[in-house]
Amino acid sequence: MAVVTKIVNLIASQALNKRKFDALLDEVNSVYNGLLMYNSVRWLSRGNVLERFVDCLEEIRLFLQNEGKIEQYSQLLDVMWLSELMFFTDICQHLNTLNTHLTV
Predict the structure, then answer these.
(1) Burial class (CB within 10 angstroms; exposed 0-12, middle 13-18, buried 19+) of 18
(2) For residues 8 and 5, what is the distance between their CA atoms, to the nearest angstrom?
(3) With a threshold of 0.85, does the pTM exceed it?
(4) How far is residue 72's CA from residue 45's CA, in Å, rounded to a whole number?
């Protein structure tokens, strides 16, 4: 989660990077218009942030490569790390779904 948070903060918390990334998403006709910020106070946001991150993974890699920062995040090229990220994302989404059904 630490690497995902760093990357999301790099992109979403700086206005110029946010505009560049949003333009990239628009250029590739993504269904998303940006990344979600992670809020550690609301644990439900973790699953949503991870899901959006995984869905935009190719665009994030392209953005970081264009900015010359892909080397700082070698995890994005590590198959083992990525498979663990996908598994963690699935678990968090499953927990979000369970929580939603239990509160209804």
Answers:
(1) middle
(2) 5
(3) no
(4) 25
